[in-house]
Amino acid sequence: MAWDKQLWRIQQSGKFIIFVVYLSFFLDNMLLTVVVPIVPDMLYKLDYSGDALNNNYLHNFGKVRNCSGHSTEAEEAPTSRQHMVNENSEVGLLFASKAIVQLIMNPIIGPLTNRMGCSAPLFAGTLILILSSLMFAHGKTFAVLFAARSVQGVGSACISVAGMAMIADRYPDDKERSKIMGITMGGIAAGVLIGYPFGSVIYDFVGKTPPLLTVAALLFIDSALLLIFLRPHLEPERLLVGTSILKLMKDPYINVATGAICISTFAIAVLEPCLPLWLMESMDPPRWQLGTVFIPDSLGYLLGTNLFGFVTYKLGRWLTAMISMVVVGICALVIPYSSHILQLVIPHFGLGLGIGVVDASLMPLLAYLVDSRYVALYGSVYAIAQVAVCLAYSIGPLLGGYMVKRLGFPWVMRAIGIANLLYSPLCYFLKDTAALEENMVINLKSTDYLANKVAPKAEGRTAYSSFSNED
After folding, report:
1. Are the C-beta atoms of 293 and 341 separated by less than 8 Å?
2. What does the DSSP 8-state code read for residue 244?
3. If DSSP codes are grouped into helix, strand and coil, which group holds residue 285?
4. What are phi and psi of 59, to 5 degrees?
5. 2: pLDDT confidence band, cut at 50, 70 and 90?
6. What does the pLDDT look like over 161-185, one tens digit per residue?
7. 143 to each of 135, 136, 382, how far by Cα in Å?
8. Phi first, then psi: what are they for 49, rounded to 5°?
9. How far is the C-alpha of 301 from the C-alpha of 292, rounded, in Å?
10. Helices 252-282/78-116 angle, 10° precision
11. Measuring CA to CA, how many Å separate 106 from each of 14, 31, 98, 380?
C-alpha cells in the first residue's frame, strides 16, 4: 500500500511530468544531433571503400587528419574539394528523411493524442527511438542509415506532440504554462548542446558505435521510468472530440505563428548538413571541430527557451518573436563572411538564441489560441507546430544541399537571412491575440469526468470565444 501511495503521488506530481517530458525531448534531440558530425564523414568514406579506399583515397582524395589536426598527406587533390560539395545532396537526403517521415506522422499522432491521452504516445515514441539508435549503431550502408533516420521520425512525432500536449494539459494558467514550456523546451537545447560535440569527439577517438549505444541505453532508462511511474494507458474519458486539425490549419493566427516557427527553424535546418561540408571545403578543420562548431547554437537556444519563456509573456509574444526573427536573419547573413571557425561563435549563438526565443514565444501562444477559440485539447495544434518544424527540416536539407551545389553556401545563407527579415513584420498581427482573453468563456466538462481526476486541470475543460465556430 505504501508503494501504491508513493506511486500515486509521483504520477500526480507536476515536477515528474516536467522531468519525463524534458528527458524525452533531451534524448530525442541528442539522437538527432549526435549523428550530424558522423554521417558526412561516414558517407564520404563509403563512397571510397574497399580497394578504392586502400589504393586511391590517400593519394587522390585529400588529406587524412588525425585527432590532433596534423595531416598525414602534404597536399590535397582538387577532386577532394569538389567531391565534398557534391556530397551535400546525399547528406541532405539522409538528414531530411527523418523530417519527412515526421511530417507525415504528425497529423496522425495529434488527433490520436487528443483521443487516447499523452502517456501512451510518449512511451511508444521512446521505444521507437531505441530501435532507431540501435540501427544507427550497427548500420554500415546508406540504406540502413536512411532507414534508421526515417524510423526516428516516427518516434520523434510521438514524443514532440505528446510531450507538448501533456504540458499544456497539465498547466492551464497561461502565465505558468509559458514558464514551464520554456523549461521543457530547454531539454531540446540540452540534447542538441550535448549531441553535437559528444558525437563528434567520441566518433573521432573511438568510432560511431559507442555514442549511439550510449543514447540507446539512456532511452531504455527513460522508457523504464515511463512504464513504472507513468503507466502508459488509454484514457477513455478522452473520447471527447477535439477541434479537427484541418479547422485549426485554417486559423490565421495559428498560420502566422507556425510560419514564424518554420522560417526561423529553416536556418539551422540548412546549416546542419551543409555547414560541416563547407567547413571541410573552406577551412579544413580537424574532424572533432565539425561537431563543436554547433555548441554556440545550442547554448543560445538553451538560454532563449529557459530565460525568455516568462519574459515573452510580459513583453508581448508578438514583439519578442518579431525581434528574434530579425536577429536570426542578421546572423544568417553574417555566417558566410567568416574566415575562421572562431568567427562563427557570435552569429551561431545569435542564431540559436533567436530561434529559442521564437519557440518560447509562440509554442505557449498556440495553446492559448486553442483555449480561447476552440476545444481545449492540444494534440492537433502541436501536431501543426511540429509540421512547421518538419517542413523546415525536410525542405531545408534537400533544397539547401541542391542550392549549395548550384549557388554556393554563402548565397544560400543570405537567402535564409533575407527570408527571416521579410517575414518578421507579420508577427505584428499576433498582437491581436491579447484581445481574445476578453472573449474567453470556460466551460467545464461534466462533474463525473472531474470526479475521475485527482486534481482538476486544463484537460478537463472546453474553451470557446466569440471568434469560434464551434458553438
Report:
1. yes
2. -
3. coil
4. -95, -30
5. low
6. 999 999 988 888 888 888 899 889 9
7. 11, 11, 31
8. -85, 175
9. 15
10. 150
11. 25, 19, 12, 8
CB contact at 8 A, 390 and 152 = no
Residues contacting 419, CB < 8 A, separation 6+: 263, 266, 329
The grid coordinates listed for 311 are: 519574459
Show the cell assigned to 294. Answer: 554547433
Quick one: DSSP state of residue 337?
G
Q: Which of 83, 97, 75 is nearest to 41 (CA)?
A: 83
b vs e for 173-185, b when ≥16 Cβ sit within 10 Å of the residue's Cβ? ebeebbbbbbbbb
Which residue in the block uniquely carries the three cell numbers 538553451?
302
Q: What phi and psi values does residue 442 have, to the nearest 5 degrees?
A: -95, 125
Phi, psi (5° rounding) for residue 154? -65, -50
3-class SS of residue 96: helix
Site of grid cell 533544397 = 399
pLDDT of 51 over the 70 cut: no
Residue 64: phi and psi, rounded to 5, are: -115, 120
Gap between the Cα atoms of 191 and 214, Å rounded: 13
Q: With beta carbons less than 8 A apart as the criterion, state whether 328 and 355 touch.
A: yes
**Would you say 267 and 350 are in contact if contact means Cβ atoms under 8 Å apart?**
no
Strand pairing report for 441-444 and 461-464: antiparallel
pLDDT tens column, 317-333? 999 999 999 999 999 99
pLDDT tens sequence across 188-197: 888 888 887 7
Instruction: Cell 563543436: give the residue.
Output: 292
* 369/436 Cα distance (integer angstroms): 8
Q: In which region does residue 16 sit, left (phi positive, over 0), alpha (psi from -120 to 50) or beta (all else)?
A: alpha
> Using an 8 Å Cβ cutoff, are 122 and 232 in contact?
yes
Judged by phi (left if over 0) then psi (alpha if -120 to 50, else beta), residue 341 lies in alpha
DSSP state of 227: I
Q: Assess contact for 137 and 208: CB atoms under 8 A.
A: yes
